[in-house]
Write a structure and sequence with these properties.
It is built from 6 helices and 13 strands. It has 210 residues and is α/β, with parallel strands linked by helices. The strands form 3 sheets. Strands 1, 4, 5, 6, 7, 8, 9, 10 and 11 form a 9-stranded mixed beta sheet that branches. The chain has a two-stranded antiparallel ribbon with strand order 2-3.
Length: 210
């Protein structure tokens, strides 16, 4: 089964507390989301493989290490996932970006796909799917299924800021090969399928919409 990784770091915890505050405006919310994403990226990429190379410093030649293996594609789930992509790109500027567009039906709470576009040969890359909220898990599961079935991707990681136990359970059940990284595992979902205590609707808070 895919591993759940809760990234405990004082800076992440502090910034997330500010994000949760309903008084925090869109500008600060966006900036904090990008900052937390970049901080989480250090943990997400901890196990990337390295290879030995020879370089020459201003003093002498030396054996050094550089990243090897698969290249990385960041896949935000639109629209809220866009707020995380920037932080990951600042950390990994050579990564390219795919997009999956989904929205949640307010009656059924089920995700509806409306768009997807990926870089060429994305199946040969390590995929980092990003979305601030893992609530019911429906959007995440559908996005991962799309990557597997339509684009033949096999190396996928899911990164969220805040998750509900229900969403984690659903992803682990449907995609046991996918590791999940979160900044916080919250208590539960409420009757409207919002995370409690959560941080509200991430998309609305990022873009200042209601």
């Amino acid at each position: 089964m895919g591993k759940l990784n809760v990234v405990n770091h004082p800076l992440i915890t502090h910034k997330l507390s500010i994000m949760r505050n309903k008084k925090t405006g869109s500008k600060d919310f966006r900036e904090l989301l990008s900052e937390i994403s970049m901080l989480m990226g250090y943990e997400v990429t901890r196990d990337l493989p390295l290879e030995n190379i020879v370089i020459e410093t201003p003093i002498t030649k030396m054996n050094a290490k550089m990243l090897s293996g698969k290249k990385i594609t960041i896949v935000p789930i639109l629209r809220a996932g866009l707020g995380m992509a920037d932080g990951f790109q600042r950390l990994i500027p050579t990564a390219n970006v795919g997009h999956i567009g989904m929205y949640r039906d307010h009656e059924s709470h089920e995700p509806i796909e409306y768009y997807s576009k990926m870089p060429d040969k994305v199946c040969d890359r390590k995929i980092i799917v990003v979305d601030p909220m893992l609530a019911t898990g429906g959007s995440a599961c559908d996005a991962i299924s799309l990557l597997k079935e339509k684009y033949r991707c096999t190396d996928i990681i899911l990164v969220n800021i805040v998750a509900a136990p229900e969403g984690v359970e659903k992803v682990q059940s449907e995609h046991p090969d996918v590791d999940i990284f979160v900044a916080a595992l919250d208590e539960r979902l409420n009757e409207h399928a919002y995370i409690v205590p959560g941080l509200g609707d991430a998309g609305d808070r990022i873009f200042g919409t209601k």
